[in-house]
Design a protein that fits this description.
The complex is a heterodimer of chains A (276) and B (490).
Chain A (H helix, E strand, L loop, with lengths): L7 H15 L1 H24 L2 H15 L4 H16 L3 H31 L1 H16 L2 H12 L3 H25 L3 H9 L4 H34 L8 H10 L3 H25 L3
Helix pairs in contact in A: 2-5, 2-8, 3-4, 4-12, 5-6, 5-8, 5-10, 6-8, 7-8, 8-10, 9-10, 10-12, 11-12
Chain B lengths: L4 E12 L3 H9 L4 H8 L2 E12 L3 E6 L5 H8 L7 E6 L2 E2 L5 H10 L1 E4 L11 H5 L1 H4 L5 H14 L15 H14 L4 E5 L7 H18 L2 E6 L2 H7 L2 E6 L2 E6 L1 H6 L4 H7 L4 H4 L2 H4 L6 E3 L4 H11 L3 E6 L4 E7 H10 L3 H4 L6 E2 L5 H10 L4 E4 L5 E5 L1 H10 L14 H18 L2 H9 L1 H4 L8 H14 L17 H8 L1
Parallel strand pairs in B: 3-8, 3-9, 6-7, 7-8, 11-12, 14-15
Antiparallel strand pairs in B: 1-2, 1-4, 4-5, 9-10, 12-13, 15-16
Helix pairs in contact in B: 7-8, 15-16, 18-24, 19-20
The chains are: A mainly alpha (276), B alpha/beta (490).
Chain lengths: 276, 490
């Protein structure tokens, strides 16, 4: 017996075409807004020249790390190295992309996590979707993003948001569900409204877990922003890609090192911000 | 306690499962909890629970794990929705309330204290206590002043800015209690509130709860699996088994009239001396002599009853005036003194609700029977050693539920001696030591010593040891009496 080939790929292609055809205008508008967000953030980061930015961010990390002198020194050295390798502008562009993507992912992910913790039906819908999003190779997201938004920073950001969102949803959901039952009973027994229960009991108690999700989200954003260089995202990732294409090991390594510095910086800052 | 009904449960049933109506119809057919679980895989949490809780009482819901006591408690503020039945608080059925009405009831009328404290870890003591006020939208200044008062009332003043993690278990539960009190609710629900504390702290907290209850007069519904705790705290106790209430009654009723074998098995091995009160072991004060009678009447009465002392009362309501010893009576007869002059006015008295374990040292030290006197000075009964021993010994015999005062006096004396004998054989050594110190008196308590041999014995002792004990409930034991001291230490 001959089983016909199930047209999975064709169907997806058709769906993507259909969306492109019917929502083109909407997609263009979204694209413009997002581009504005990214370039605005990038301009803000580049507003201060490095000689002011580096002391400023070191001071900031000193206080964020609860007066941690090592964190401040590490920050100063790392950003100094980036400037010294002449990767400042590219790094700020990457940072802007990472921050705006992570922000968007969190704005969608945290509420979705809260809702799925409250609603089991939604949770059963969201959970397989998250599994799908996390196991699908990240490159694959690039294709529809490319079709919808063309080349450039915006499709990269969209792919990054999709890729970085799952841990934010998962860990928020987990954090809320792990709030001890007695504590939610306290909230109810004293007559809290649903919102009071969430804001005064559940979110504060779940905060460490949610912050772990925020941390993961930012880290994944960074890794995806680099991969997204393949669809024309500029910044350090592009520099790495350039290094690969020209087999320029020095150039690739320097850009890679800058990425590592930014990653460590973001990781430590978010860890210090979360209560323990 | 006035008998206003504060809270009433009517036919409360809770089914955990997917098809409660089916289970209810099975219950109506008389199937048991385990049969229903086998058949439908649904659990009967509560089956047709009915009771009333009166204003200002401590009502203890008691049972083993899985008996449904915590479920029942949570039904009272609808943390768990009952499947069927009504819950009336001040006559309002809270099961019919919408979300907002329910919230108002929870904010103003019902406070809750949790087993594992359930304090918010991200808040200070003050902000934890103020939580209930905060969600009502009470401005900061006002809620903090109320919270501070609540913190002070549980003895945690000075800790208001501490973090929760810095507190010990006992302190945490004080915070939990203060949080419930800060809202000034009428009803306090306490879910195994002291179970997570170590025994000494638990006992302290129980005492403090009782003291607090005296001050603030809340209606407290206390869930416990610890019988001693239930007996100590409860004005009334509901005993639960498999989601049903097996018996409701005062601690004494539960102990002395268990409804079925489950209850009697449950209460086996309880230290009765903590539960039985002076009232429950006292006997009728007979004979009595009026203060207006002469010494001759008193002597005659003592002779007839074969006793060496007699209580002197005044008026119809038996206002206790004092105790007259046979020696003093004979003296008065010779010198022509009146009873009022001859009697000993500061005879030992106890309040009717004094627990037996506090009566024992008093009676051990006293030369006289103890008079049980109510607040207005009326003589309700007397306690002699025999009655105390008898009441304690009953617990050694299974199923013996009669209380001493139900029998007529003659029978009782012999009964008492019999049980007292058993008492010596079976009871732990500490009690034997106490009896041993007074060995000379066990056989003939002041009541049954004859007139003549009573004379030398008792009266001389009374004189030797100075002023006899003023044995009211709150007065500490006399320290100059050697035998009393020993009885106390053992």
């Amino acid at each position: 017996m001959l089983i016909p080939r199930i047209p999975v790929g064709d169907t997806v292609e058709f769906a993507v075409d259909w969306i492109e055809g019917n929502f083109g205008l909407f997609l263009d508008l979204t694209s413009k807004q997002l581009d504005l967000l990214i370039s605005g953030l990038k301009d803000a980061l580049l507003f201060l020249p490095p000689e002011f930015f580096i002391p400023g961010i070191s001071l900031l990390s000193y206080f964020a790390g609860k007066r941690n002198i090592k964190l401040a020194a590490g920050t100063a050295f790392g950003f100094f190295l980036i400037e010294n390798m002449e990767l400042w502008e590219l790094s700020m562009e990457t940072l802007a992309l990472v921050l705006s993507s992570a922000l968007l992912a969190l704005i969608i992910g945290i509420p979705l996590g809260i809702l799925s913790a409250k609603n089991n039906i939604l949770f059963h819908v969201v959970k397989p979707a998250l599994d799908f999003m996390q196991t699908m190779p990240s490159f694959v997201y690039l294709i529809p993003a490319l079709i919808f938004f063309g080349l450039g920073n915006v499709p990269g950001m969209i792919a990054t948001v999709v890729f970085a969102m799952p841990p934010a949803i998962r860990l928020t959901n987990l954090g809320i569900r792990q709030v001890p039952k007695e504590l939610t009973e306290v909230a109810d027994a004293f007559g809290s409204t649903g919102w009071q229960k969430l804001s005064k009991v559940e979110l504060p108690v779940a905060l460490p877990t949610i912050m772990a999700g925020v941390n993961q989200c930012i880290m994944l954003s960074l890794s995806m922003v680099v991969v997204a260089a393949m669809i024309g995202v500029r910044g350090l990732g592009y520099q790495v890609l350039f290094g690969i294409q020209r087999v320029d090991i020095g150039m690739g390594f320097e850009a890679g090192l800058a990425i590592v510095i930014i990653a460590i910086f973001l990781d430590r800052i978010t860890q210090y911000l979360s209560p323990r | 306690m006035d008998k206003n009904i504060k809270l009433e449960l009517r036919n409360i049933t809770k089914i955990f499962g997917k098809n409660p109506p089916k289970v209810i119809s099975l219950l109506n057919e008389g199937l048991s909890k385990s049969e229903i679980f086998k058949k439908t895989k649904q659990t009967v949490g509560l089956n047709n629970v009915n009771f009333k809780v009166y204003d200002g009482e401590i009502f203890v819901i008691m049972g083993l794990s899985g008996s449904g006591k915590s479920t029942l408690l949570r039904c009272l503020n609808r943390l768990i929705e009952p499947t069927a039945g009504k819950i009336l608080i001040d006559g309002q059925d809270i099961t019919q309330m919408n979300a907002k009405e329910l919230r108002d009831i929870r904010r103003t009328k019902i406070g809750m204290v949790f087993q594992n404290f359930a304090l918010l870890p991200h808040r200070t003591v003050l902000d934890n206590v103020a939580y209930g006020l905060e969600i009502q939208g009470i401005p900061k200044e006002k809620r903090y002043s109320k919270a501070l008062a609540a913190i002070e009332s549980v003895g945690l003043k000075g800790y208001e800015h501490s973090k929760i993690t810095q507190l010990s278990g006992g302190m945490k539960q004080r915070v939990g209690l203060a949080r419930a009190l800060a809202n000034n609710p009428d009803i306090l629900l306490m879910d195994e509130a002291f179970s997570a504390l170590d025994p000494l702290i638990r006992s302290d907290m129980q005492d403090e709860l009782l003291a607090l209850e005296d001050r603030v007069q809340k209606t407290i519904i206390f869930v416990s699996h610890d019988l001693d705790e239930a007996l100590k705290l409860g004005d009334r106790i509901a005993l639960m088994k498999d989601g049903e209430v097996v018996q409701i009654g005062t601690p004494e009723e539960i102990l002395t009239e268990p409804a079925d074998s489950y209850v009697s098995k449950f209460v086996e091995g309880v230290d009765r001396s903590k539960v039985l009160t002076a009232e429950s072991v006292m006997k009728r004060p007979e004979p009595l002599v009026s203060i207006n009678s002469g010494p001759r009447v008193a002597i005659q009465l003592m002779k007839n009853h074969g006793i060496s002392s007699i209580y002197v009362v005044e008026g119809k309501n038996r206002h206790l005036k004092g105790i007259l010893m046979i020696g003093d009576a004979l003296e008065a007869l010779k010198t022509g003194k009146s009873l009022e002059v001859a009697m000993f006015p500061d005879s030992p008295r106890v309040a009717p609700d004094l627990p037996l374990n506090e009566v024992i040292p008093l009676i051990a030290e006293s030369q006289y029977p103890l008079a049980v006197v109510n607040d207005s000075g009326k003589l309700l009964g007397i306690i002699v050693r025999g009655t105390v021993l008898g009441a304690l010994a009953v617990s050694g015999e299974n199923g013996r539920t009669e209380t001493p005062e139900e029998k007529n006096p003659e029978e009782k004396t012999s009964e008492e001696r019999k049980s007292a004998g058993k008492f010596f054989e079976y009871k732990p050594p500490e009690k034997i030591v106490f009896i041993g110190k007074n060995k000379g008196e066990v056989g003939h308590s002041s009541e049954d010593s004859g007139v003549t041999d009573g004379k030398g014995d008792i009266i001389n002792d009374g004189i030797d040891s100075g002023a006899p004990a003023k044995a009211t409930a709150k007065v500490p034991l006399r320290s100059d009496s050697g035998s009393g001291q020993e009885a106390k230490t053992c």
